[in-house]
Amino acid sequence: MNTRLAVVILNFNGQQHLERYLPSVVKHSAPYQVIVADNGSTDHSVSFLSAHYPSVQLLELKHNFGFAGGYNVALEQIKDSFDYYFILNSDVEVTENWINPLLAFLEENPSVAACQPKIKSWNNKSQFEHAGAAGGFIDSNYFPFCRGRIFDRLELDETQYDFNLPITWTSGAAMLIRANLFHEVRGFDSDFFAHMEEIDLCLRLGNKGHQFFCIPESTVYHLGGGTLDYQSPKKVYLNFRNSLFMIMKNHAGPLLPMLFYRMCLDGIAGIKFLISGQLKNTWMVFLSHMNLYVQFGRFYKKRRQIRVRKRNFIRYNGQIIWDYYFLKNTIFTALNKRKFN
């Protein structure tokens, strides 16, 4: 067994996903080790794995640490055994030869910290999937978007993004990352619990001079929303809150003006939710801001420990909200490429 690379799947009460998607992972991942880290599941996930997949290494965590904390705890247990981690969601179907193009790219490019495959929708396999698509970016206000997905607009895959491209962040749904770099920056920030923790990780590594790429020679299919629905108020809360946490830690310029402007934009989103009758989502935006006030000192301390002097990661120096809603540039190819640097 080749021990250089481990495919690591975090599971929480996801027996149905393991039954549906794990067969493709086991079939197409040899000779690499497949590991399932169970995040304190209360369903029959553990007994199912033991009975049907004895070749899959099982790590049983004591309770649900969340996505970020669960991976940190699991990967800490295996850090002396592997050089690369392929972090993979439990609701992802993989394809033949999905690992080797990414592994070869990392081995040939030592400045690249992580890369991802092209991520398409399991429900509509001709379409990109929300969580990563063909590689992620952020704009000047730290709003994330992807090649193939801006906000909720998902593009059809017509091979328009079938070339390797440096990106800002790789998706936590399917990410191959160097183990030493993951641990060097202490992995995901467990205070995020779930959502956008991979963007925060990539910004921290990016500010240290490391690069990220999408390698579309490899393709996977992601169900998306398998653990928490994309429209869930809890997900709205985590995304708005964690965006502010990410800015607190990684913004290289004056912090308070950036936070104030971003929170004003969040407020507009909250009003939009209110007008459309999504009262719970408006409340979630408000709660996310209140939590920032509670956690401000904690995250300001993290900011000082990171000591970002200047931005080194790739960014879209435009405003994606303006481009999307006012200029009607709803697909990635319509954006001004001169604004990426």
Structural commentary:
The chain has 10 helices and 13 strands. With 341 residues, it is an alpha/beta fold. The chain has a domain of 107 residues. Strands 1, 2, 3, 4, 5, 6, 11, 12 and 13 form a 9-stranded mixed β-sheet that branches. A two-stranded antiparallel ribbon has the order 7-8. The protein has a two-stranded antiparallel ribbon with strand order 9-10. Strand 1, helix 1 and strand 2 form a beta-alpha-beta unit. The model has no long low-confidence stretch (mean pLDDT 95).
Helical region count?
10
Please, what is the average pLDDT?
Answer: 95
**How can the largest sheet be summarized?**
9 strands, mixed
Unreliable stretches, pLDDT < 50, 5 or more residues?
Answer: none
Radius of gyration, rounded? Answer: 19 Å
Task: Give the tally of β-strands.
Answer: 13
β-strand amount = 15-25%
In whole angstroms, the N-to-C terminal distance is 41 Å
Secondary-structure element pattern, one letter each = EHEHEHEEHEEEEEEEHHEHHHH
Residues in helices, as a percent range: 25-40%
Shape: globular
> Could you say which structural class the secondary elements and strand pairing correspond to?
alpha/beta
Provide a brief overview of the structure.
The protein has a domain at 233-339.
Could you list some keywords that capture this structure?
single chain; 341 residues; alpha/beta; nine-stranded mixed sheet; two-stranded antiparallel ribbon
Question: Can you lay out the helices and strands and say which pair or pack?
Answer:
Elements: E1 2-11, H1 15-28, E2 32-38, H2 45-52, E3 57-60, H3 66-78, E4 84-88, E5 92-94, H4 100-108, E6 112-121, E7 136-138, E8 144-146, E9 149-150, E10 153-154, E11 165-167, E12 174-178, H5 179-184, H6 197-206, E13 211-222, H7 233-250, H8 255-275, H9 279-306, H10 320-326
Parallel strand pairs: 1-2, 1-4, 2-3, 6-13
Antiparallel strand pairs: 4-12, 5-13, 6-12, 7-8, 9-10, 11-13
